[in-house]
Amino acid sequence: MAKQCGECGIKLGFRSLNHIDGVDYCDECAPRIKADSVKRKELQKAGVQDIFVVTMSDPPDKLVHKTLGPVSARAVVKLDILQDFFVNFMDDFGGRSGAVQRYFKKAEKAALQELRIEAAIVGANGVVDLRANYDLMEMKQGKIILVNMTGTAVRAATAQDSVTGPPGTVG
Fold it and tell me: Shortest CA distance to 53 belongs to which of 66, 45, 62, 44?
């Protein structure tokens, strides 16, 4: 069976020299995918905590200058055997498990970090209209937590910047 490009789907034949992050790509898609992969790794190291993320579409302290498009991220965390047991127990008898809630929080933080990276890649300094979905799924290997986040990447300034101008300008 011939391999296909992980981006455009074109058939690659029997050999692919463009193997990036476990996926094969054609010669046309590979340079862009490689650049995105390098940029993503740099952003993961540098951090993107200065990118704001809000659930509202028009935050009161920000002025959106440009909408850059949708961004999304997901995180999957596998519960270990003990937490899997507690989830089954809670299903039968009710209650809350602090350990399971910590796994949800871990997945949420990972998805939020990935969302900020996706926003930075498209040149945004913020994400508005954040929506998050949380799922606990049963797999053959046990239970997993899936957190999916979507939002709109934007370029924005603070309300103060709009009065005085961007930092470094006279105005």
Answer: 62
